[in-house]
Amino acid sequence: MAFSDLKLLADDLTFREKVEISMLKTALAIVGETPASPANLSLDVKRHDLGNAVLLSRTRWLDTFSYAAASEGSLTTSSTDAQVETVVISVWDDIAGVTGAEA
Length: 103
Description:
0% strand; mainly alpha
């Protein structure tokens, strides 16, 4: 998909609505997680902090998640809610700043 098409997708109102609900659902799930272990504490803190940030200010994060989800490349304007949610979940750790060593 051309970059211009990805930008159009990221700015599409229907797509953004799906991303917004997906990021809120994901944030709620992550904020409610029990930390896995002390070895993964850094990962858990970053994921949890992003979850709190999204819940407190979803509009601040909507562009970030919309552009990240669109840039992943597999979504279109006709993607299902489940497909959008899967991609939002898949980009969560990257947006949270989790590194490969932490994952």
